[in-house]
Design a protein that fits this description.
It contains 2 helices and 17 strands. Strands 1, 2, 3, 4 and 5 form a 5-stranded antiparallel sheet that branches. Strands 6-7-8-9 form a 4-stranded antiparallel sheet, with no helix packed on it. The protein is mainly beta and 235 residues long. The chain binds calcium ion.
């Protein structure tokens, strides 16, 4: 009996704690689904499990409970495709350990649907695409998502090859290259994680293509280039 009373007291206390530590961000009225009627939007950021990564997104009388990977600091109304009459909601975390992250939702007048998320620096183009930039060992990977109207989801455009076009100096002879030679790294073909260990481990098997000053073409993996070329490696 005492156990049960203690449990009830604990649950009430727990519930009050939760309520006290919900942070409501600004409430806005925007027509999300293009029916000419304003939709009331609000976001409650919830303290649970030691952080503020959980949240409750409310639109009119509908709500969805979700979780980000880091503390949530708010949301924005965005327009993924200006040619349709729909607007979307992007719930944001600044992610202290890396680039900002967003989770996207669409409201059709009836339901809230999660349509995707981005985990990189994000730019909304307004033409149905979202650009994302990911900082790699020494270069920036540029990708994009496209909103698929039939699926109602943001689709990742899968790529393996990226152009770079940057000049670097050889700091230690390798292959047919001498110290002091200049090479232009023209592109990279990204490999799957090849189970290397150490710094940049997931990228060590990526293959970089280069051209020398004499017009000779060559290629080398990141592992082969590190220590041989003055790559501006990001810490
Ligand atoms: Ca509306």
């Amino acid at each position: 009996m005492i156990k049960h009373i203690l449990l009830v007291v604990f649950l009430i206390t727990f519930h009050c704690t939760l309520s006290a530590q919900e942070v409501t961000t600004k409430t806005q009225s925007v027509d999300l689904d293009g029916d000419g009627i304003q939709d009331k939007i609000s976001l409650n950021i919830i303290y649970a499990g030691g952080d503020y990564s959980s949240f409750l997104l409310m639109i009119n009388n509908k709500e969805t409970l979700d979780k980000h990977s880091y503390n949530v600091d708010g949301y924005a109304i965005i327009d993924i495709d200006k040619s349709d009459n729909q607007k979307e909601i992007a719930v944001h975390t600044p992610n202290a350990n890396g680039p900002d992250e967003y989770i996207f939702y669409r409201y059709d007048g009836e339901n809230i649907k999660r349509i995707g998320s981005t985990h990189s620096f994000t730019k909304f183009n307004g033409d149905g695409t979202i650009d994302v930039e990911t900082f790699k060992s020494f270069w920036t990977k540029h990708d994009w998502y496209t909103y698929n109207k039939d699926m109602g989801e943001l689709e990742w455009t899968s790529k393996k090859e990226y152009s770079i076009n940057e000049e670097y100096s050889v700091i230690e002879s390798f292959a047919s290259l001498e110290k002091g030679d200049k090479i232009n790294i023209t592109k990279v073909i990204v490999s799957d994680d090849c189970n290397k260990t150490g710094a940049y481990s997931e990228e060590l098997c990526d293959v970089f293509f280069y051209t020398t000053e004499d017009g000779i073409e060559g290629s080398a993996t990141l592992e082969e280039l590190i220590g041989k070329v003055d790559l501006p490696l990001q810490p």
